[in-house]
């Protein structure tokens, strides 16, 4: 069975080799039909302590690592990509 992959924002990096990732999803309300946001926090394994609070990352489901950790961080999502510099001769 394929592993689930989610994208979310790191809200805490205080634990050793652990980050807390907030994953938001949008769902339609059953009765009123309005689109509402639902969020859930996942504890994910960060072996090298390289990810910091405020970064957007992708996490992947794994076998249980500890009581709360069943996810590991795969990589950063480049949300602030800067365009390549183009020199224009005037």
Automatic annotation (TrEMBL):
<dbReference type="InterPro" id="IPR012340">
    <property type="entry name" value="NA-bd_OB-fold"/>
</dbReference>
<dbReference type="InterPro" id="IPR000266">
    <property type="entry name" value="Ribosomal_uS17"/>
</dbReference>
<dbReference type="GO" id="GO:0006412">
    <property type="term" value="P:translation"/>
</dbReference>
<keyword id="KW-0699">rRNA-binding</keyword>
<comment type="similarity">
    <text>Belongs to the universal ribosomal protein uS17 family.</text>
</comment>
<dbReference type="Pfam" id="PF00366">
    <property type="entry name" value="Ribosomal_S17"/>
</dbReference>
<dbReference type="InterPro" id="IPR019984">
    <property type="entry name" value="Ribosomal_uS17_bact/chlr"/>
</dbReference>
<keyword id="KW-0687">Ribonucleoprotein</keyword>
<keyword id="KW-0689">Ribosomal protein</keyword>
<keyword id="KW-0694">RNA-binding</keyword>
<comment type="function">
    <text>One of the primary rRNA binding proteins, it binds specifically to the 5'-end of 16S ribosomal RNA.</text>
</comment>
<comment type="subunit">
    <text>Part of the 30S ribosomal subunit.</text>
</comment>
<protein>
    <recommendedName>
        <fullName>Small ribosomal subunit protein uS17</fullName>
    </recommendedName>
</protein>
<dbReference type="GO" id="GO:0019843">
    <property type="term" value="F:rRNA binding"/>
</dbReference>
<dbReference type="GO" id="GO:0022627">
    <property type="term" value="C:cytosolic small ribosomal subunit"/>
</dbReference>
<dbReference type="GO" id="GO:0003735">
    <property type="term" value="F:structural constituent of ribosome"/>
</dbReference>
